[in-house]
Amino acid sequence: MAPLRRRNLLAAGVRAFFTARGYTEVETPYAVPAPGEEVHLRARPAGRLWLHTSPEFAMKKLLAGGAGPIFQLARVWREEPWSATHAPEFTMLEWYALHADMGALMAESFALLQAVLPPEVTCRGVTTRLDAPEYLSVAEAFSRFAGADVLATAGDAPALAAQAGARLREGEDWEDLFFRLLLERVEPHLGRERATFLTHWPAAQAALARRSPGDPRVAERFELYVCGMELANAFVELTDAREQRARFIADRARRHALYGPDWPLDETFLEAVAALPACAGIALGFDRLAMLAAGARRIADVLWLPDE
Prior knowledge:
This protein is an alpha+beta fold and about 300 residues long. It has one domain: Bira Bifunctional Protein, Domain 2 (BirA Bifunctional Protein, domain 2, 2-Layer Sandwich), CATH 3.30.930.10. It has nine helices and 13 strands. The chain has helices at about 1-20, 55-65, 100-115, 140-145, 155-165, 175-185, 240-260, 265-275, 285-295, and strands at about 25, 30, 45, 50, 70-75, 90-100, 120-125, 125-135, 195-200, 210, 215-225, 230-235, 280-285. The strands form two sheets. Strands 1, 5, 6, 7, 8, 9, 10, 11, 12 and 13 form a ten-stranded mixed sheet that branches. A three-stranded antiparallel sheet has the order 2-4-3, with no helix packed on it. Strand 3 (about 45) and strand 4 (about 50) form a beta hairpin. Helix 1 crosses helix 9 (about 285-295) and helix 2 packs across helix 8.
């Protein structure tokens, strides 16, 4: 029971952290008409609706309506298999800071870790100090660990494979190879002795982030790694509804080609994007945060009734 009691203390600490910083805790519906638009998104149906995979769409609608800085501890569902670090139903901590750039959101994310975790955490055999994080762009990480220029080869799978010395698999496109190299060669080096912020993702992986004004080849997106685990994914939010629509249409076409038709495009969300204030948002896996706090080896150890 000790890991579960630690989980409860962690939730209280998270709420205290955000309340002290002027955030409002919100609750949004779990069953929604459109659960997201990622290409490989596998959502769980709930009658005529879908269980959401993130509260992002709903929270941005609140932001567009003037809710101000907000946070939520939400149950979410993703139809992916159980593993030591993933459950198909899990808790996501998501928050949005107004008028924040990537640097400000990274600083706040790290301040949260320092507020709710000890100065050093050990999880799954890896010990990470939480004194000063490492900042590494995706381009720097691929150059260092995969021997490839990920920006110069963007969209060219054979060129990326040649630089990385990787065999291109049948049917593998640039994005597939990018994520294979990220998983196999880059991620094993991240968030070990120190927490790592992996920043400035290629524009093709922008998702709902805006492109960098200084370099349109990259998006203002980062992921956070601690004890070798991906803990969070963050964006400086795109507020151009036309660009967001174009991205969604392209992603929907790819997803439908792979998995068949699913949910309608969320037009009310696109209306909200057009009305969004300048903001940055982050989704953090609360169960993984609990694993760090408790030193747990499996995500099931910090869930009250794991249904493995």
